[in-house]
Description:
With 235 residues, chain A is an alpha+beta fold. Chain A has helices at 77-80, 84-98, 103-106, 124-145, 176-179, 210-234; strands at 14-18, 26-32, 35-44, 58-65, 110-119, 158-166, 169-172, 184-191, 196-203. The longest helix of chain A has 25 residues, at 210-234. Chain A binds chain E through residues 21-24, 27, 34, 38, 40, 42, 44, 62, 64, 66-73, 76-79, 81-82, 86, 112, 114, 116, 118-119, 121, and chain E through 21-24, 27, 34, 38, 40, 42, 44, 62, 64, 66-71, 73, 76-79, 81-82, 86, 112, 114, 116, 118-119, 121.
Amino acid sequence: MRPSGRHLSEMRLISIETDVTRHAEGSCMIRCGDTHVLCTASLEPRVPPFLKGSGQGWVTAEYGMLPRATHTRGRREAKNGQSGRTQEIQRLIGRSLRAAIDRNALGERQITIDCDVIQADGGTRCASITGGWVALRLAVNKLLKAGDIVTDPLTDHVAAVSCGLYAGQQVLDLDYPEDSEAGVDGNFILTGSGRLIEVQMSGEGSTFSRDQMNGLTDLAEKGVAELVAAQKAAI
Amino acid sequence: MRPSGRHLSEMRLISIETDVTRHAEGSCMIRCGDTHVLCTASLEPRVPPFLKGSGQGWVTAEYGMLPRATHTRGRREAKNGQSGRTQEIQRLIGRSLRAAIDRNALGERQITIDCDVIQADGGTRCASITGGWVALRLAVNKLLKAGDIVTDPLTDHVAAVSCGLYAGQQVLDLDYPEDSEAGVDGNFILTGSGRLIEVQMSGEGSTFSRDQMNGLTDLAEKGVAELVAAQKAAI
Amino acid sequence: MRPSGRHLSEMRLISIETDVTRHAEGSCMIRCGDTHVLCTASLEPRVPPFLKGSGQGWVTAEYGMLPRATHTRGRREAKNGQSGRTQEIQRLIGRSLRAAIDRNALGERQITIDCDVIQADGGTRCASITGGWVALRLAVNKLLKAGDIVTDPLTDHVAAVSCGLYAGQQVLDLDYPEDSEAGVDGNFILTGSGRLIEVQMSGEGSTFSRDQMNGLTDLAEKGVAELVAAQKAAI
Amino acid sequence: MRPSGRHLSEMRLISIETDVTRHAEGSCMIRCGDTHVLCTASLEPRVPPFLKGSGQGWVTAEYGMLPRATHTRGRREAKNGQSGRTQEIQRLIGRSLRAAIDRNALGERQITIDCDVIQADGGTRCASITGGWVALRLAVNKLLKAGDIVTDPLTDHVAAVSCGLYAGQQVLDLDYPEDSEAGVDGNFILTGSGRLIEVQMSGEGSTFSRDQMNGLTDLAEKGVAELVAAQKAAI
Amino acid sequence: MRPSGRHLSEMRLISIETDVTRHAEGSCMIRCGDTHVLCTASLEPRVPPFLKGSGQGWVTAEYGMLPRATHTRGRREAKNGQSGRTQEIQRLIGRSLRAAIDRNALGERQITIDCDVIQADGGTRCASITGGWVALRLAVNKLLKAGDIVTDPLTDHVAAVSCGLYAGQQVLDLDYPEDSEAGVDGNFILTGSGRLIEVQMSGEGSTFSRDQMNGLTDLAEKGVAELVAAQKAAI
Amino acid sequence: MRPSGRHLSEMRLISIETDVTRHAEGSCMIRCGDTHVLCTASLEPRVPPFLKGSGQGWVTAEYGMLPRATHTRGRREAKNGQSGRTQEIQRLIGRSLRAAIDRNALGERQITIDCDVIQADGGTRCASITGGWVALRLAVNKLLKAGDIVTDPLTDHVAAVSCGLYAGQQVLDLDYPEDSEAGVDGNFILTGSGRLIEVQMSGEGSTFSRDQMNGLTDLAEKGVAELVAAQKAAI
Lengths: 235, 235, 235, 235, 235, 235
């Protein structure tokens, strides 16, 4: 019944290829089915003004989509500025990753996670978070290996998946054909130990019940567990 | 234990004053404690390009905060452009209100809800949604009264409240002192009949459990019921 | 003969409500008939670069109009940037208020006057100046009361009124129906002692004589005297 | 007593050279002492949207200053956007010239007056108006000569001069050293027949009396008469 | 003597992988050593305004560099707007590709070539042109295969290479360490048949002779021939 | 056979008038036929951040075109931002002039060359470089005369000319009618001693041979020699 033929609670094929660019301190190409996101972590010896002298570090994120990542070519944001949607997504990625970082242990340095969508088929913000965590993990590993920090500032895995109501059914990991028809669309960000970091559920022109809210959260827990397993396998 | 002395599940005083401006087709000043938002509904005989000729209408929202609505003066967005936060909020308001509108019944016209925060003390996006629905209701009433439309396009009430973890406790309707210290912050948008429209829960640098998610949602249901009662009383 | 039925030299009803917001150091809602402007004064312990180390303070102003303050909804300036008209008005407000301030007595601090038009019916720049002065007065009073400054830096009242030629007659305090038809439109800013601060008279597609210039200035003197009386009553 | 050694009511040397560029329908270089402004009139077979189908024409103006027209190099507005001051000036130029144009006689076409300051020594907006009128006159003459219009749409001359209080004295046609020290600064735009189009008087941190207002207006009448004579001589 | 150990006239390893994204009508990943550029061709059934109704098509290009394609992270252009360098490069790419297109044979449609640098090591604009031509070729092939056009509008291959003076020697295909030290830097765009399309030679703070100009052009002819061979092998 | 009746290798009439504005440290009006560019050099006691403390100076350039410098009025860049073309040109001017400056001898100061096109008839970028060098020379002379620097930092003349293929013929110094029809268009920047600084040759929708490249470069050498002679005569 799903356009892809997947079972209701079946994830798309996950692939995480690490160290895909030469310059970044950490990087991966994450592929969740046909959604491909290049994630890089850049380490910089500076923090935003509000943290200067605090001894605390910062993790932030930026998100972009190549103009032809989508079915029809979109306008290049470099020419038109970031859309509200783009800003919303990059704020979400940064906030989610900061939930699993001990900023004192990181010390006064900033890690910027760039998530650039090379090809899109739904779920790009979730793939960005899952892949972004891998890039972050790799960059932090370099800091640990070099002895620049001694305590691991990463307190847990972070991964994200979308769930929604498609054709009246609760389904896991929506692809674009499902996403564009979904009655309810949710994004769930969880830790490796199954704690919730962020939940965003939105009736797209409709509403949903507490039971549906619970059912979708159950699905999300299953999906994130699989993503965390993939993260572990990749590193 | 709350800074305001309120009980854990106690809302702030709600006041909704209608028809506060001369020109708008619908308007109200909503006051949730010290958070005051002026909401106006403007009816325009046009729709966005993607709806031209569809026979369907559109509801959209814009949000702003006067520079000195807050403790310290903020920069005027007219000089600096809308922040990511502002865009995120106005997208949420519009999406939430559209969940309770029958766009075919509305016909090819647009209603723009402007939510301008006159004074802020936490919860401005929730107050904007609750007050924005009242302005929308009043504007639609004018259309019905004038015979411009015959079927009421508003299918239900829409109201919103924030809940969160403050000092380890689940509290309803966070004010600014609570909001700035909250470990988890959630915004819940529901209909008058108790259906969920949108849920946004975010660990602010921390995480939360399924039980806490449920507890906060219970509180939100209670709070929204009180807000809907206030909406009914106001009109 | 005037649309409102007023006599040629009759002002609209003036009302000045003070301390209308919690956070600002000074604030008022001024109502000149159906023109309502919220004026706040924000005190900040900094001055523009060109005054650093000079021992002198600064008073500046910003102006905005809520999108639906007018008959038909205007575009939100936060989305489009400030118009030339808006910049012209806020430069005028700041310049006018600085004419009655002793910047040495104020000391190295800045007071920003925000004038936000809640509802418009002509004469918004004049109402902003008259109400802005009240907000400024209240903020300065706080500084005096707290002993932060010892000499009152405010040297006089400042108030403003528009006069113009409507249907060939010299009229005082134009409302929107008059303003949009006026052949000549003037804005007069005066002190409490009747000195001129700024005069702007403009033939709107027409011209005027020295006699008319004098007649309108006479009217303005009468109107400003009434506004200053209202300022005194409000504080 | 004036830095330039001029008498109180003495204008700077005026020179108006016409037809200084090849492409524009009308053009002149106006020199008021060391203030040099290149004024061009461009005729375009279109009008702003609000005039489409009205049969009426439009005259508008744009103003700019070359970065090194001034003592110290200013920032290029093409890189930073037009300042509030620039917008205020170009609105004034357009408004002033429209006061002497019969838009029905002009027919549905637009004339854009570009005023670009090549060298500045005070009074650039006044020189722009005086020179802009000459460029407009020349462009209209072409229309008349070609038979595109039959009735002359220009109803009178338009010229402008500044007057102010310098060192306590009423002086005519302020240059930069005077302008930067003036206690009161006024710009007067008049027609060839001596009617007032626009008066802008501003106490620069000070105030002025009715008598001073009258005295400065007397000076302006004298100055504009000389400018109009120069316009007549140039064409 | 070259940092990479290459001979003076030795190109970097060239690799062109085609059809690397699902949605684009044509695409390739071109790798010139460590410079990797994703090139996509997007076909759209519209042309710029100046070609409407002409029966002619258009080829244009946009260029971007991911923030961490470089040694140190650059600012994201979506947040800051396109730099002058970016605009200069994308204008060059489009102009070069148009030199080998018969716009009448293409018909009234537009092909946009997006060149996004995934990893940079010098020569990104040349790689973009060489790879962009491959994406263009593939998109045009689809049009031919579908019978949408009958005459092949691509008249020849287009490829580009940089040459320069490094440590006093004429070298082919500069990588980043060479480029950042080069005394003269040239970009040569040629057709498959060896005709010149564009030559840009620039003394970077120095000058060069006619002999050096000729020597570098000889090198470029050799390099482009190898690139064209790689293009042929890839398709 | 040329529209102007000139021989194939005949330059337009060159005129360089120096010291045309009061305030700039160096200035000239250069006229190449009907192309007139005002060039000013502004000396400022600061350098860009990357040169602070280096003891080296900087030369940079900005370029603009008055809206009615052209046949039809263009949009004012102050209202719309600098076009890609404008940025490309001003980068070229700055780069070219820096090729003949000893930045250590200049010392830590910046000279900004402003090139503003008063009237355009093709070749504005070349005229800007040739005239810009004169303005630079004059400003440097002031520094030398004042004893602020002791070694002349200008190592040679810099001048530029365009050559191209017009109606199949190699022609020197294209004017607008030629430029808009040219099959190949080249800009050549050379020193007074005949060394090349920058060569830009572009097939405008066509291609060219090595022989043509050489022929056009020969013409450019002839043209620049004449321009350098004019520079020498002017100073």
